[in-house]
Amino acid sequence: MGFGRFEIRRTCANPNLEEVRDSEAAPACPGLLQEFLVRIGLNCSLKDFGLSKADIPELAKQSMILPDYSNNPKVPTPAQMTDIITAAL
Asked: Is the pTM above the cut of 0.70?
């Protein structure tokens, strides 16, 4: 049953989501992604790469100037980018 472009990915992560619409499955996706990262040993943070709070402003600034950034369907503001990076620390 085709419900959208994320069907294959979410059903691989949790087969119980096969018959669930995207709008209903979406809230489970962050947790499923985190479980997947733990399973494959990629559950890390920016601290694991030696970054600190002092690095956040520059990293946020650099994150806003990538050449393909304009292709992002939802472009965050600088403040939102800072929040995203802070959460990844």
From this structure: no
